[in-house]
Amino acid sequence: MPRLQLLRLDHAPALLRFERENRDYFAASIPDRGDEYFAHFDARHDELLAEQAAGLRFFHLVMDDSGAVLGRVNLVDVADGSADLGYRIAERAAGRGLATTAVREVCALAVAEYGLSTLRAATTLDNTGSRTVLARTGFRSVGEILLSGRPGLRFVRELRDTDRAVPEWADDAVQGIGSAEGMIGD
């Protein structure tokens, strides 16, 4: 059963494997991270953990029972009760509702743990899967945008106290959220 975890130092090897294994798959719909990302992964991972500890960003991993990363759901640019949402799901796990469930859980955490009231997101027009996830999780389109030169849409979601409800598969995972044992990454 998938579990959402807040990014930790010991996630680095599994996260790097996830990014390498899915690099070409992700690059088909979002800008590639570039060779620098992989060459300096450990330093970047340390930076992410420092930003998370400062409350500037919250990085979440969707993990399977074997400890492999199935996806990421992140909240970045956290300020004034709002944040930008980003997510990516492994090719082998795509199309099964995992992104929708993980985004719902992060919305619950955004309200209950991080005190946020608004989330923003963006995706390219040709990324049908991402647009579907945003629609299913209550985001509404608020305008057009260019993402790395590609046409896209901006989305927003106002969070409510009722968003604290956690998806069924997340019940066991939430117990580690908010502690160093339950962190997730970008």
From TrEMBL:
InterPro entries: Acyl_CoA_acyltransferase (IPR016181), GNAT_dom (IPR000182), N-acetyltransferase (IPR051531). The keyword Acyltransferase applies. Transmembrane segments: none annotated. One of its GO terms (cellular component) is cytoplasm. Its EC number is 2.3.-.-. It is an enzyme of class 2 (transferase). Residues 2-160 form the N-acetyltransferase domain. PANTHER family: [RIBOSOMAL PROTEIN US5]-ALANINE N-ACETYLTRANSFERASE, GNAT FAMILY, PUTATIVE (AFU_ORTHOLOGUE AFUA_3G00765)-RELATED-RELATED. Belongs to the acetyltransferase family. RimJ subfamily. This is GNAT family N-acetyltransferase. It comes from Streptomyces sp. R41.
